[in-house]
Design a protein that fits this description.
Layout (H helix, E strand, L loop, with lengths): L18 E3 L34 E7 L2 E10 L17 E3 L1 H12 L5 H14 L12 H11 L3 H24 L7 E4 L2 E4 L3 H5 L10 H14 L19 E3 L1 H9 L21
Antiparallel strand pairs: 1-2, 2-3, 3-4, 5-6, 5-7
Helix pairs in contact: 3-6, 4-6
């Protein structure tokens, strides 16, 4: 007698099935180690944790119920056999028990396979920023994608730095245009007069704060080429921003005083070309 094939209930595909990010419990004290026979052999084992740990937990919500606190990680496994964009799952890991439970729910007809796939892809997108996945992206490809879409996570991360750079550039440019009130200018190589040829050569011929599309392009260039571990003033297009800081006579004297030792030693250079009268 032929075995009747079980009919699985039909589920409507829920493309917008939500994900809920779960706050991780605080662990005040690590779990204590227990006696292990392997210790007699000279091996050491980490104690089994008593609370969930590792990765980030997400609640996966399906039409027929939830899977609570499914833990995902990033950066441990990169299978070149299945390489694809990071936002499509490459580099992510999912706890194996949750995968087994999810497959069981699919087999039992409780979850549609399409819903499971969509939720896992949404999880990769939700955790992209918290896991700083852009650090694993190809810099050229990441920048090209940013230019195409008009922004990215890295640009948002560096926007505050860029705004601070623009505020400083606006004020430096204003001062450089008024050498009567600000007769001295200081830079990396020391102090000059504001009208010094060195200051003019190393300053832009014209400066205006970028706006609109020009701002988006400038933020893209800054965010994708600046070295966050440096002074943050070396990046593609940095020559378009004024770097010299023009000072009043009183400010110049204060600047010199902070760079002069107790015995009169100077920790700065005085331009030989313009020979500023100090």
């Amino acid at each position: 007698m032929a075995r009747k094939k079980r009919q699985r209930p039909q589920h409507r595909r829920n493309v917008d099935a939500p994900l809920e990010q779960v706050s991780q419990p605080r662990v005040d004290q690590p779990a204590e180690a227990v006696a292990d026979p392997a210790g007699d052999l000279g091996w050491e084992h980490d104690p089994v944790p008593e609370t969930s740990c590792g990765g980030a937990p997400l609640d996966m919500i399906f039409p027929a119920g939830k899977m609570m606190s499914v833990r995902l990680g990033f950066g441990e496994l990169f299978a070149t056999e299945r390489k694809r964009p990071i936002r499509e799952g490459w580099g992510y890991t999912v706890e194996l028990p949750a995968v087994v439970d999810l497959l069981q729910k699919i087999e039992d007809g409780q979850v549609a396979a399409a819903d499971a796939r969509d939720l896992l892809l949404q999880a990769a997108d939700v955790l992209y920023d918290p896991f700083r996945c852009w650090e694993a992206e190809d810099p050229g490809e990441l920048r090209a994608a940013c230019a195409q879409t008009g922004g990215c996570s890295l640009c948002e991360q560096h926007r505050g730095w860029f705004e601070a750079l623009l505020e400083g550039a606006d004020e430096r440019w204003r001062r450089l245009q008024n050498p009567r009130d600000y007769p001295f200018a200081v830079g990396r190589q020391g102090i000059h007069t504001t009208s010094c040829a060195v200051v003019g050569r190393e300053s832009p011929d014209h400066y205006a704060r970028p706006t609109g599309d020009a701002y988006t392009r400038a933020l893209n260039a800054y965010s994708h080429t600046v070295d966050p571990h440096s002074d943050r003033d070396e990046f593609e297009g940095s020559s378009a921003y004024p770097r010299f800081e023009a000072l009043t006579t009183q400010e110049a004297h204060a600047w010199i005083a902070t760079r002069t030792g107790p015995k009169g030693g100077r920790n700065f250079k005085r331009c030989r070309r313009c020979a500023p009268a100090l």
